[in-house]
């Protein structure tokens, strides 16, 4: 008996005391053969935490090494367990039998019967042939030690061993787990798979429930097909087993104590999942098909829509959330992970026990889209782990219209990418619902046991084309010839249950009629739906609704407390050795806190975080090297020079402070930014920041900006307060390290959907960051953040500007010029301002004023008008930018600026000063860069020569 396991059993069982002997006997039986105990007990024992086999004192199945020693003892000659030490033919064959067992474990899936259509071409695997191991048919009746094979007996004939292996590894379940290096995980799978031959016995009640869920899955597709023929719905036909799979996944997760399950999926089967799993009212779906929907926003097509509901499980109420998803299929994956992490943080759930991510993929997208790999790479990192994700691949065996494997991918399975994080992969034939049920239980149990990702490859087919208007036989003639003859999963399973006597033909028909009647009546058809959900499971967004972008925010902060927080950040633990240059930065910050030194960018930025934390707002920041900052200005994380241990002063401002989460990210843009978007859409009260190493690196995440950040509110009503810091500025560092592609974000601007800011002083970044949280408006904020300004001698602020000021969308001329003498106004944003200012001062020009636009969108027309009005004798107005004419703010914002100039004087015309249009964002040669920079400064200030 496993003493630790039994101790766990008694600590969790309600049947201890007088039933000890009975339960122990049941457990012993379960260890020998799980199919021999009642189903409810098997499920209970399956969910018990596993005990490390290496510490067990009385396990019925010994490791292979111990078996070798046993053989040697029986023959009175103890020797090492290696082939060279084995002399007799029997011992040689015994070793080969053990090798055969491992061959099935590693490669049996390649002979598994996974394809419902029977068309899948399987590779010949010599390892699974007896002759490969020096065995033959003549050995089938010989008795051999079973080694670590979990079949309930220590000796068996070779035939019994092979039959057990064939059933376990070459049936309708193909399991891949031998690539996992953790021995405990391998042994866990071996026990769970081999003990029931991958096909546990289910009771009649479970089988009838499976049939009912299949009836629902098929019934909805048939109903929609007849009511809306030819209309796109990306139906689940051929993959209806997804519906009972999701039902079991949710119910079993509930028994483990899950309170929320967040689901991401693309189009295929989405409507079916909405209706049959999440409980969307059927009449609401029909209204969408009929076009009877009230338009509160631009909206999106039916099969992109999200939904949320609560269902009841034996473990309590569970909140389900299906994320909105655009046609960029797999991009929803990291968005879901971010939402899950936010929910886990809110619940103080670091292991991910209470919030479970579920991602449903298409086979070709899973293999083909790089964001899948990026998301897997996030799965065990500190910043992005969520306690393991359950991945489900709806494997139609065809990508759009491509069915040739060597066109779709370079590997045997579409799921092979999951092996980069050693995720176990459970392939299952979708036409075997009981096998689907089993692998679902296995996946949920594995995720709960090891807190790691697991993949279910639901091998099925697509009964119709890519959508219901397509004719698929033009590109897949053989596949669709077979599909036309193929009975549905529901019909096949119903026939099986009828033959077993579980139900009659009439009862089967009655199930179909009941479901259709429910659809006709427009009812909810999800069986476990909670009609009056527990609202404590929801995020309250009401404080952030209905606010205009012009809403003011008081971002001032009491000066004395500001100084106290600044000094608190300079404290380090006793014996902590700070690196020499960093020590100088901290000493300078001490002087800044005392008012003895002008405030620079790093001080102001970290003070924004400190004051928000002090006021009760949590802060999360990720990106590549954000702890230090790409340009070594932030130093929010200090590293002990003695042992390398980090210390984060912002986490130690006071007792009981909100979380300050600062993580250096993987070298990813797309998945990381999508993750942070998902996080921010679930945590409205926090400041959530993603910083690009260089602004133009965000190009790799453009789909996130296009499909989520810029349009999520108008398509789906999803508010988001995410802040993106994109370093931008022309310092002669070449095409890839200059421009953050400001023009791309401005082009996305409409209907006050995002904020685009270009702050030029420490006080501005301080108040901008504070405004993002304190103002109840929740809009994404894109910041063209500086590089050289981080240490520029003129880019400084005072303590009073932090304590008493606010973010200003337009900054007026700072020198004491006589407004009446000003003949030219130069408008600009960002670093070029300081180049213009220094040159104007050097040239002693008193008729040129410089005005900064610190917010380019929403365009601050009123604020700009107020600044321009005092220049009563203007002759010229210029817009100046460092970017080429076809980039930057010129094309996207000139109409706003022209309107402001025209309001001042209709005779005035807006002129341009800057680089000429260019295919490349910046010069690659420093000499050329300086030449261009000199020319644009001269053009802007009207200098000759």
Automatic annotation (TrEMBL):
EC code: 1.2.4.2
UniProt keywords, alphabetically: Oxidoreductase, Thiamine pyrophosphate
Q: List, alphabetically, the SUPFAM superfamilies matched.
A: Thiamin diphosphate-binding fold (THDP-binding)
Asked if the record carries the keyword Oxidoreductase, the reply is yes
UniProt keyword annotation of Protein biosynthesis present = no
Enzyme class, one word?
oxidoreductase
Which GO molecular-function terms appear in the entry?
Answer: oxoglutarate dehydrogenase (succinyl-transferring) activity
The cofactor(s) it depends on are: thiamine diphosphate
Transketolase-like pyrimidine-binding domain segment(s) = 599-792
PANTHER family in the record, alphabetically?
2-OXOADIPATE DEHYDROGENASE COMPLEX COMPONENT E1 (PTHR23152:SF4), 2-OXOGLUTARATE DEHYDROGENASE (PTHR23152)
Q: What role does it play? A: E1 component of the 2-oxoglutarate dehydrogenase (OGDH) complex which catalyzes the decarboxylation of 2-oxoglutarate, the first step in the conversion of 2-oxoglutarate to succinyl-CoA and CO(2).
Record-stated family: Belongs to the alpha-ketoglutarate dehydrogenase family.
State the name under which the record lists this protein. Answer: oxoglutarate dehydrogenase (succinyl-transferring)
Query: What is the native source organism of this protein?
Result: Bacterioplanoides pacificum
């Amino acid at each position: 008996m496993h003493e630790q396991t039994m101790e766990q059993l008694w600590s969790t069982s309600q049947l201890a005391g007088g039933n000890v002997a009975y339960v122990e006997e049941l457990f012993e039986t379960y260890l020998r053969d799980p199919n021999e105990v009642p189903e409810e007990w098997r499920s209970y024992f399956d969910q018990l935490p596993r005990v490390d086999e290496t510490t067990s004192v009385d396990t019925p199945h010994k490791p292979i090494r111990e078996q070798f020693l046993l053989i040697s003892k029986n023959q009175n000659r103890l020797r090492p367990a290696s082939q060279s030490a084995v002399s007799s033919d029997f011992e040689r064959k015994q070793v080969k039998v053990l090798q055969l067992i491992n061959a099935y474990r590693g490669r049996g899936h390649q002979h598994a019967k996974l394809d419902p259509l029977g068309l899948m071409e399987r590779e010949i695997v010599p390892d699974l042939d007896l002759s490969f191991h020096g065995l033959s048919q003549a050995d089938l009746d010989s008795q051999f030690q079973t080694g670590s094979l979990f079949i309930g007996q220590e000796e068996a004939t070779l035939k019994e061993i092979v039959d057990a292996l064939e059933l376990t590894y070459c049936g309708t379940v193909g399991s891949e787990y031998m690539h996992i290096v953790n021995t405990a995980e391998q042994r866990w799978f071996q026990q769970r798979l081999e003990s029931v031959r991958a096909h546990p016995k289910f009771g009649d009640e479970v089988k009838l429930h499976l049939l009912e869920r299949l009836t629902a899955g098929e019934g909805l597709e048939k109903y929609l097909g007849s009511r809306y023929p030819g209309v796109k719905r990306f139906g689940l036909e051929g993959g209806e087993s997804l519906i009972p799979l999701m039902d079991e996944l949710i119910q079993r997760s509930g028994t483990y104590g899950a309170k929320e399950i967040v689901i991401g999926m693309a189009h295929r089967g989405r409507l079916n999942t909405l209706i049959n799993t999440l409980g969307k009212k059927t009449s609401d779906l029909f209204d969408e098909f009929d076009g009877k929907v009230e338009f509160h926003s631009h909206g999106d097509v039916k099969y992109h829509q999200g939904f949320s509901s609560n269902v009841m499980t034996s473990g309590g109420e569970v909140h389900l959330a299906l994320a909105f998803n655009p046609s960029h299929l797999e991009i929803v994956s990291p968005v879901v992970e971010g939402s899950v992490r936010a929910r886990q943080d809110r619940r103080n759930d670091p292991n991910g026990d209470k919030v479970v991510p579920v991602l449903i993929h298409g086979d070709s997208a899973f293999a083909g889209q790089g964001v899948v790999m990026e998301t897997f790479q996030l799965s065990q990192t500190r910043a992005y782990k969520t306690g393991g994700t359950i991945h489900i691949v709806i494997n139609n065996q065809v990508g759009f219209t491509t069915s040739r494997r060597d066109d779709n991918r370079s590997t045997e399975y579409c799921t092979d990418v999951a092996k980069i994080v050693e995720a176990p992969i459970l392939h299952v034939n979708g036409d075997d619902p009981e096998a689907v049920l089993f692998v679902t239980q296995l996946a949920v149990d594995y995720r709960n046991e090891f807190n790691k990702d697991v993949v279910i490859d639901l091998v099925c087919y697509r009964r119709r084309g890519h959508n219901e208007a397509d004719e698929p036989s033009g590109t897949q003639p053989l596949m669709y010839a077979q599909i036309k003859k193929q009975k549905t999963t529901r019909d096949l399973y119903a026939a099986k249950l009828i033959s077993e006597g579980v139900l009659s033909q009439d009862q089967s028909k009655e199930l179909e009629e009941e479901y259709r009647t429910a659809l006709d009546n427009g009812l909810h058809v999800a069986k476990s739906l909670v009609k009056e959900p527990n609202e404590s499971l929801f995020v309250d967004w009401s404080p952030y609704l209905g606010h205009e972008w012009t809403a003011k925010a008081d971002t001032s902060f009491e000066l004395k407390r500001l100084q106290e927080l600044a000094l608190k950040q300079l404290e380090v633990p006793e014996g902590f050795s700070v690196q020499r240059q960093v020590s100088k930065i901290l000493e300078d910050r001490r002087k800044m806190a005392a008012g003895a030194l002008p405030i620079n960018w790093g001080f102001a930025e970290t003070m924004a975080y400190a004051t928000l934390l002090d006021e009760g707002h949590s802060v999360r920041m990720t990106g590549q090297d954000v702890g230090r900052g790409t340009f070594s200005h932030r130093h929010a994380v200090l590293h002990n020079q003695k042992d390398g241990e980090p210390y984060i002063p912002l986490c130690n401002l006071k007792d009981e402070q909100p979380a300050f989460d600062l993580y250096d990210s993987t070298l990813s843009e797309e998945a990381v930014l999508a993750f942070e978007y998902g996080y921010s859409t679930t945590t409205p009260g926090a400041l959530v920041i993603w910083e690009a190493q260089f602004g133009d690196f965000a190009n790799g995440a453009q789909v996130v900006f296009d499909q989520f950040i810029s349009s999520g509110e108008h398509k789906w009503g999803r508010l988001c307060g995410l802040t993106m810091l994109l370093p931008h500025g022309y310092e002669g560092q070449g095409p890839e390290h200059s421009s953050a592609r400001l023009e791309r974000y401005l082009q996305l601007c409409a209907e006050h959907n995002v904020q685009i800011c270009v702050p030029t002083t420490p006080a501005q970044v301080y108040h901008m960051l504070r405004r993002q949280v304190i103002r109840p408006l929740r809009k994404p904020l894109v910041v063209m953040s500086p590089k050289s300004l981080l240490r520029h001698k003129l880019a400084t602020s005072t303590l009073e500007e932090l304590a008493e000021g606010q973010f200003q969308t337009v900054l007026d001329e700072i020198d004491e010029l006589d407004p009446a003498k000003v003949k030219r106004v130069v408008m600009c944003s960002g670093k070029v301002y300081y180049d213009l200012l220094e040159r104007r001062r050097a040239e002693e020009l008193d008729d040129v004023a410089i005005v900064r636009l610190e917010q380019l969108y929403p365009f601050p027309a009123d604020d700009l008008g107020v600044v321009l009005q005092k220049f009563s004798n203007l002759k010229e107005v210029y817009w100046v930018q460092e970017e080429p004419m076809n980039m930057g703010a010129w094309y996207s914002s000139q109409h706003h600026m022209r309107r402001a100039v025209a309001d001042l004087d209709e005779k005035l015309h807006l002129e341009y000063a800057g680089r000429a249009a260019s295919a490349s964002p910046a010069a690659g040669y420093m000499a050329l860069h300086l030449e261009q920079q000199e020319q644009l400064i001269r053009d802007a200030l009207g200098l000759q020569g």
